[in-house]
Design brief:
single chain, about 210 residues, alpha+beta, 5-stranded antiparallel sheet, two-stranded antiparallel ribbon, 8 helices, 7 strands, about 25% strand
Length: about 210
């Protein structure tokens, strides 16, 4: 199931039930249907008003990456914690006692990630530890764009058509160049961006 499907199911249960005292009730709705690029976690707030919290990861992101220098903040429960703090959307959900659904791209050094996240807080403030259930999906982890800003129109067209999955011959036909000339342009773009492969070039151009 897609993230949107699972998020809607969680919201429906959250709206329809007033007796959810523990986040495990909500997590059981989706935990067996999560894909490898999804994260499910419970944020437990301190009950002493200190603002401290703990994170219990029910299901972690588990798609491998060949990038050796991916920041830890991107590897695990990355949407929930930014600089060791609660993401603002979780704070908003908890303060307003309403679900918060966001889509966001985060950049850190030369990496970027795009994720969607649903935060479902405890429905009402009651005695005991407060909590928030968080469902996230990591759409991608990539190197940030390294494409120079002053490329000519042909290079920009080649990059766009590469993103669309066209082959060299098809690109050459669209930009009215021979496939060999397109290959030369692609090799130059790879050298400019530090890309090792065609896939890496496309990723870096996003």
């Amino acid at each position: 199931m897609t993230f949107g499907d699972l998020a809607q199911q969680l919201i429906d249960v959250w709206i329809s039930r007033d007796d959810v005292e523990h986040p495990i009730v909500l997590s059981h709705v989706v935990v067996d249907r999560l894909s490898a690029n999804m994260v499910l976690a419970v944020i437990q707030m301190s009950d002493d008003g200190s603002g401290e919290f703990s994170v219990h990861v029910i299901r972690d992101y588990s798609i491998p990456t060949s990038y050796p220098d991916v920041p830890e903040v991107f590897k695990s429960r990355l949407p929930m914690l930014v600089g060791g703090l609660l993401h603002p959307s979780i704070q908003k959900a908890t303060a307003g006692r309403r679900p918060s659904l966001i889509s966001e791209t985060v950049r850190h050094n030369n990496m970027q990630t795009n994720f969607e996240m649903l935060s479902l807080p405890r429905k009402a403030a009651k005695p005991g530890r407060d909590w928030c259930l968080v469902l996230g999906v990591v759409n991608y982890i990539l190197r940030s764009s390294a494409v120079p800003k002053d490329l000519d129109d042909v290079d920009l067209a080649v990059l766009q058509l590469l993103r669309e999955g066209l082959q060299m011959r098809e690109i050459g036909h669209r930009v009215e160049l021979s496939p060999r000339t397109v290959e030369h342009r692609v090799e130059r773009l790879k050298a400019l961006t530090g890309a090792r492969t065609l896939h890496d070039l496309v990723a870096r151009s996003l």
